[in-house]
Amino acid sequence: MDLKFTELGQDEFAFRETDGETVKAEITWTQLADLMVMEYTFVEEKLRNQGLAKELVDRAVAYARENQFKMQPVCSYVAETFERSDEYNDVKA
To answer: Most buried by CB count within 10 Å: which residue of 20, 69, 87, 92?
Structure first.
């Protein structure tokens, strides 16, 4: 997946996979200083159950680690992913 970092607005960001103007998959957050408030994860229906949502989470986690940010999941998918594995403990707020 070719995820592109996208600025959505003031302090709002995403990693997105698009096909032209159509968003195929994305994970979005609001940046509050060194805290990423993870708000939304989306994968187009025909692309679901292929591990893309976890790939989105992993890319956001890599970004958090690169920038020494913490992550607060508001999105239920991100929260559930964090709960299932200790591999994300270093970025949990």
So the answer is: 69
